[in-house]
């Protein structure tokens, strides 16, 4: 059953992001301690990887039905109304994630068109921003999977 709720890609991205953030931060601390200076790229990469980690973790939580929500009403409703509430919850999530995907994609494309560079390292800004619509679109897919499983009764929202 575990493989059924798997979000392998997101788990891998989250773990890799956390490992790289840890290594970058450790290297920066050691360098600062030994030389009095620090790496210039650490903050820029750490913030980017933190965004990837956040979206990857949220996607895993969606797939495993572990997002925080108030389910008091859902547990109290009769079964015939519960499905409508689950659909409403899924639709609300779909709207929010759809807007993030759309506007995130628009922002990444504009940064690509304008050839904006990152302030720290001078890398193309869209390299960082393109992950926002990609990972939020992946979250849309995980939300659809979760909603379908909840409607079929394979995922329950137990307290």
Automatic annotation (TrEMBL):
Q: Where are the transmembrane segments?
A: 12-33, 45-62, 83-105, 125-144
- Does this entry carry the keyword ATP-binding? no
Taking the record's annotation, the residue ranges forming a coiled coil are none
Give a Pfam family name.
DctQ
Compartments, record wording: Cell inner membrane
Among InterPro entries, the record links this protein to:
DctQ (IPR055348), TRAP_DctQ (IPR007387)
Q: Where is the Tripartite ATP-independent periplasmic transporters DctQ component domain?
A: 22-151
What top-level branch of life does the organism fall under?
Answer: Bacteria
Its membrane topology:
Multi-pass membrane protein
Q: Give the keywords, sorted.
A: Cell inner membrane, Cell membrane, Membrane, Transmembrane, Transmembrane helix, Transport
Q: What is its main location?
A: membrane
Tell me the protein family, please.
Answer: Belongs to the TRAP transporter small permease family.
Q: How does this chain assemble?
A: The complex comprises the extracytoplasmic solute receptor protein and the two transmembrane proteins.
Q: What does this protein do?
A: Part of the tripartite ATP-independent periplasmic (TRAP) transport system.
- Please report the name of this protein according to its UniProt entry: TRAP transporter small permease protein
